[in-house]
Amino acid sequence: MAAIRLGDLSIAITRKAVKHTHLSVHPPRGRVTLVAPLDTRTEVMRAYAISKLGWIRRQQEQFRAQARETQRRYVTRETEWLWGKRYLLKVDHDDAKPSVTLNHLQIVLRVRPGSDGEARARIMQAWYRQQMHAAIPKLIAEWEPRLGLCVEGYFLQRMKTKWGSCNNRARHIRLNTELVKKPRALLEYVVVHEMLHILEPKHSERFFELLTRHYPAWRNAQTELNALPLGAEPWRE
Question: What CATH number does residue 147 fall under?
Fold first, then answer.
């Protein structure tokens, strides 16, 4: 991929059939991309990037300062999150089938005596997936008639670099399991975003027009989502 260099900054450039130039700074490390109309000269793109250099640096600094979750050990009094709300974890050891229950202050994890961290993690992750499976079909069903499309299936996946993805040919969407820890409104935003990719696969002018029409607050949602703590796992770009 072609790139523009501005001192120590490398900006990946792409020419596409779009009307306007789009400059983006991507989490987690502040990678910068610039998409411009097909006939845009490199000198014009360079001048545009220079004019936005202050904004780029501010965005990169925000990503570098962004909090990351600590590595989870799943022990009593460790902090857990569900739908944007903080809970304290309580681990009970009981010679019975493992389970997870929720009350207004705590998430209670019941495990067999001697269960190690990996076993506790598997139980918690399975419970988190159950919470997402309870929420996502309702959102899809609500938005299908509003967007005029049908989703053939959805999948959950632990992702390091994306909140979601879409296979528009199969009409499938894929969602990051970490979304279960974020406010429900942000899960809705990602679901709508990926559903719209069924209509428009790329981040084109048409895509953002559709997104603005159907979800006008998408910029606020995107900003809030990117400001929340990242997962403990290192991201790859």
Answer: 3.30.2010.10
DSSP conformation class of 235: P
According to DSSP, the β-strands at 164-167 and 106-111 are unpaired
DSSP string, 92-158: EE-SS--EEEE-SSEEEEEE-TT--HHHHHHHHHHHHHHHHHHHHHHHHHHHHHHHT----EEEEE-
- My answer on whether 43 and 131 are in the same domain is no
Give the CA distances from residue 67 to residues 63, 95, 181, 185, 214, in Å, rounded to whole numbers and listed in that order.
Answer: 9, 37, 14, 20, 31
Provide block-wise average pLDDT over 10 residues at a time, the chain (237 residues). Answer: 90 92 83 94 95 91 69 91 96 95 95 93 96 98 97 92 90 96 96 97 93 96 81 50
Residue 171: predicted pLDDT? 97
Q: Structural domain tally of the chain?
A: 2
Q: Tens digits of per-residue pLDDT, 12-39?
A: 999 999 888 999 988 767 889 999 999 9
- Residue 111: partners with Cβ closer than 8 Å, 6 or more residues away: 91, 92, 93, 94, 98, 119, 120, 123
100 beta partners:
109
